[in-house]
Fold each of these.
Amino acid sequence: MDAVSLFVCAPIAVMLLTAIAVSLMRGADAQRWKLCNEASGLALLLTLFSGLLVLTQPSQSFQVLSAAGLYVSPLQAVIAVLVQGVGLVVARFSSRYLEGEPHQRQYIVALSMVLACVHLLLIADHWLILILSWSGVGVFLKRMLCFYAERPFAQLASHKKTVADILADDVLLLAALLSWVSVGSGSMSALLANVSAHGHTQLTEICAVLLVIAVVLRTALLPVHGWLIQVMEAPTPVSALLHAGVVNLSGYLLIRFSALFADSTIANTLLLAIGLITCVFAALVMFTRISIKVRLAWSTVAQMGFMIVECALGLYTFAALHLIGHSIYKAYAFLSAAEIVADTRVAQIAGRQAFAALSFYLAPLLSLTIVLAIQALFATPPWPLWWSLVLAFAWAPVLWWRSSTSDLSPSLRWQGLLSGSLLTGLLTLVSAGFHHIPLGTIDQPRSEYAVAVVIAMGALYLFSVLIHTVPQRLNRLHRWIYAGLYLDAFYTRCVLRLWPVSWGKSTHANR
């Protein structure tokens, strides 16, 4: 194995050795955390260095990696740095957050193994490595989710996630078998090259659909989304790691398999339908919730649905940007949840400030104008025109301004509108500029889905306006939306009927 291969695999070895060392160490937990934090920092540095090597080496230098069932790319390097960075922050935060708690040894081991498995998943180019690493993420993440083993909802969420993970693993095994039969190899690159050169066969079409099903099960999309909401019973740093570096791995795999989905109408339609329904549904539920962490969890479900929609539309560069931005934001949001609670209390004391009715109508037009103006700066439009409408609806609430009856002075209201306009322009500029970074993503916009997506986003925007203007007329819907249409209750009953389980006073020793 050459130097590049060693550096690419080095972070995995570091975290594996850390898990072994921590499990064997005697003494205070502080020493274990010191080792974990130092190892996480070393893994991040190695990941950064290997990423630079990946960006500077010609593609033929990676033949050794390919022969070993591994794969590297600019996007993989960026995501790997992101995950290891989140891992380092979570490790340092956890060492303070869990101070004095029992079973910290098991937590550190599980955290190290999750980071090792995620890194292995990112560089996997063989179906068996992909399945084993993704399964390993689920196994060790379960130990972290059940850190407070006496909490029944934590155990219920973990059990529901385990069932979804097992189903996803079975589906992936079947997809791997079909791929192997189709191309005579377990190499994912061989499958993608074969599909790109010769088009789909019946087996590869089924493989694409099975991969979609596995993604739905692993990404907490409808109807198996409930466990992601209930893991709020886990420690806050676990939520940060889950939402920022684990649950969105499916987005990376969809981008990785983009060649497989290029001409698969069935797979793309299924992705779009589930992603769009999940996005709109979860966003509506989020509007009804009060708890900060629960709102963040529903926000993640909605964001994952939207990222799946981007992949179904062939906008893989946007999906990559979404994945990176979501990871950074959610890591910050969960780890600073206490500050958000304080800010919310200040806002509640100040009272609810009404928005001007005119802003609800003009904001989408102003947002669209800003998006189109920045899009016109580029010789080649970075995305199709209809996607600009989607962005306009998504960013329009940033441009709402306060009504004249609010406590704010006219100058402050205008400053708010100016700030919103600058933010919209900055978001658009970053999105357009990101398309010029050579990450290896190839967009294939599918305009046949444009009308459905624009209508869905328009409907979601309209509902958010109604919440602010005529909330009393939505009282009948409020109970149903708040309960998530009882979809999770139905899924929970199905899981417990298929795999009954009872919880007593569990201990970490018997897990």
Amino acid sequence: MKFMQEKLHMKIHPGLNPPPFRAHVVEINENKIMLSESYCFPRGGGQPGDIGIFIGDNFQSNFMETLPGELIQHPVKNSDLFVIDDIITCEIDSISRNRNTKLHTTQHIVSALANDIFGAETVGNQISKEHTRLDLLFPDRDKFNSEILETRFNEIIKTNAAVNIYQWSREKIKSHEKMRHTNFLDRIPTSVKNLRVVEIEGIDLCPCGGTHVDNIGLLDNLNIKNVKSKGAGKLRITY
């Protein structure tokens, strides 16, 4: 019987300051530790995976960026310390998680505003330790103005709009007139009936498995550092 892991990061909102948790070690694959359940966010959608520390009865071990899979993978440098069925404590690095959570929520708003103002579609994004990059495809990229985007963003976060999480059916997602970013739905197995939807009230609505703040007033002002051509109709903005 295949073990079904409960991926708790999908159920907790807001994504700031994740709690420590205890879980059983259920699989060890080379340098990767898999647990019975995990609050860790695994890398995906341009958002880095969590990092942190495991605490056992007689040891501590840092884990590196968590990776996706049927079981969330927690890479370590000393997997020989771990034993199947042992119960360990996991402490997620809150500084890293909180930064990524805020930047990921920022990306939602930047993408929504770029679409509303310039008709741009987000075709790529990635959060790194140094910056965030966002790739946008425009009907006419010559109309893009970074100052307008910055000003609108910095005004809108002052509204303190709430960020809400829902579980919606595929049909409701596909039929909702304000829903963004639904092209990927066809790649998700039809056995998955309901999907997690993120709403930033009055600003954005889309399916998303990332971590988010619950109030956009917590976000920092947008400061676009660079705008670069990425081919026909495309620009990469870095902030």
Amino acid sequence: MGSTDESTPSNGLVDRTGFSVRDIIRDVWIGIGLPETALESLILPGEEDTGPIVPSSFKVGTLAHACLALAALSASQVHALRNGGIRVPNITVTRRHAAIEFKSERLYRLAGVNKPLEHQSLGGLHRTSDGYVRIHDGFPNHVKAILGVLGLPEDATREDIAQKTKNWASIDLETTATVDGNAAAYALRSTQQWDSLPQSKAIGNLPIALKQLAPGERGWSSRMHPDQTRPLKGLRVVELSRVIAAPVSGRTLAVHGADVLWVTSPNLPDLPSLDREFSRGKRTIQLDIHKTADKRKLLELIRTCDVFIQGYRPNSLARHGLSPEELVKANSNIIIANLSAFGPQGPWSGRRGFDSLVQTCSGFNVSEAEHAGQGEAARVLPCQALDHGAGYMLATGIMAAVHRGACEGGAWQVDVSLAGVMKYLRSLGQYPGSEGFQCDDFNRPEDIPEGYFETNETGYGTMTTVRHAASIEGCDVGWEIMPKPLGSDKAEWLLS
């Protein structure tokens, strides 16, 4: 198994090209301060297969296997501790199933029909005077912002945008859009160009950063009593997020029994194809934090929660009185979990970003295209690997904070970024040449045996979805709450 020469000390990457899935799990597990003995509880069918499982030069299948296993093992660790320090129950995650779950939003069926994801009408890759930029148009405010930067009216077409972008240099358009224009657009770079940027140096070498914010009493919430078959039963989670990455983290906590309240804004549109998938296991409420009453309700929930997940830019919630300092004042044992594009450090820390944009600006799209050898300027990964990887890593970090809070006390902060997951995935190396593309893909439900799915009645009708890839010995793993329209529930906690 080979790798490219991009994973060298000169570019700041740790060389993990020889890492197995167990090596990855150990690397992250020890890095966030969890007991090494728990690693004996891993059962990983398919781990001996180190070849590609989805078509990519990057080791996406290995990352998926490690991410799902890390999340399950951290849940098992919490379960063992809350039950008096028993042996950590064995967890089982198969490689193929993990890779399939990394594509879950593309594979569900509603009333027997697999509906494709909404396609961007204005965004995507656009030519510039010296290359390309990728524009994100997932929300109306992003569309309005990029049209403003380009001097176009609201009814502009994709062709209108193309005529404008070709007159811009890529970096100039990126800078104007992201720094001054509140848009989401990034230049297509090579890995070498990315490595030369200060932001690339500001991203840590581990995908999870965990730190204690303030000291406090050790122990559990009274709701986290023993003798449960659900590892996170009694854990209260407020999730303020949209799209994929942060919602994956909340969905992962919910599959292990946490009470997750997904808070979305009534000012943003629904994203039906994504919201249906990532609301599994959650209750859903809508609050407008610009309104005094809604903000008061959110703060009330935060004061009585265990975990606060937010998927917005670093410091963007501070102007609403939701800085880490204010949150700790409100709740002295809170776990604050942040999911961002570029992390809390570096000149790009305040920039908007999404999976596709991080792939674009970091050299992933260019490197994928070069390895595929089809003459493309850019090729995207076969799934939202940065989104999914970051979501599972954030859930792992949260559960590590739950464990360490019980043992050490205090308030904790977890930081995970799309760029951090990108950097870690890149450090695993790449398959040589086009070898990584010599495999089948899971593009349709028909490509996957029925045993990987489960069917439930939801607020949208009968829904068949990818079953969770992890199991924990002696525990019930699964979603108890099914998807429903946003804002369907009350802003209150379940009794426990």
